[in-house]
Amino acid sequence: MERYDGSVNICATVVPNIGEVDLLTIDFIRMKKHTHFLDPRKNFQETVIESEIRVDPLTQSTGRIAHFSKLDFPAIDVEELSKQSLAGGFCPFCPNNVESVTPKFPSDITKQGRFRQGEAVVFPNLSPYDAHSAVTVVSRNHLVPMQDLTATRLTDALEASIQYFRAVHQRDKHLGYGLINWNYFPMAGASLLHPHLQVFATDTPGNYLKLEIEGSRAYRQQTGRSFWEDFLAEEKRLNERYLGDTGSVSWVVNFIPFGFIFDVTAVFRERLTVLDLTHDDVFSFAQGMQPVLRYMQDHHIYSFNLALYPSATPEDDVWVHARISARGSFNPAVHAADVGAIRHMYNEPFAMFYPEQVAEEMRPLFF
Ligand SMILES: [Zn+2]
Question: Could you give all domains of the chain from N- to C-terminal order, each with its CATH number?
């Protein structure tokens, strides 16, 4: 990847209703920093190194873009990794085990014990995260490389998970936040290689979604408008990180990635809770995942996290969105984690690549 040499500061202004309300602003604030030192690589001549601090327009959280190494990772042998993952043990999610070693739901959730759609199967999590907590196994195959995460497989896994949320909602007359997340492959935190989603309903949405809700509510209070509608309009107008639409879903590369490589967000337009999602919405999302997965494969990126961020009620004012965060290693030769002190101790995202450059490369794959 070449070094990005685009514009320095973006202060965009959205003016949807001049005369009716005050000027509304969605600002993508970028602060360039310059470090001077005498460079041993250039015979100790003075050199200037650039880095950047960004401020998220919704949460006002900061993040850093720096270092700018090449987006170039070594290939790994996923077949070998799969063999290792099965050596000396067994996989509870493989078809010959899943029926006997995974729990079943009580009959007031489903009389069938588990939810199924296509290859996907949903069962209670033996190690729950909340009162309603499940696991969705995505495939019958133990090893599913990225090229085999087809739109059908992804749709079935997500819709099976939503079936579970509908049953919880029907029984309790309450769901809360329907959270779905995925650690795909070990570098994203997967302890089992067999692809599976974590699915749970909760009234405690987690710190980040809480910040998004507070930001969205504040934006509505100040402007009378949806942050998400204005955000997408502004990303499309700037056309720096916007990737395209698949049906009812709009795709952008995140202004501040959580991971050190890149994040992509898919916004389900005008959908608030997870129960609002239709088959077409989910399939449109699964279709849009294909170019993102292709981009990762092209760059030898083998792991990602995926999380769904929904509202619990319309008052939260957050449009359902999914975020995909590419994961890897700072130095694969020594198995260095991709989360260091800046991210872990200061809770400050740090990325090595300009999101605008990633978007420029990924955008052609969307059309
Ligand atoms: Zn398995």
Answer: 78-366 (3.30.428.10)
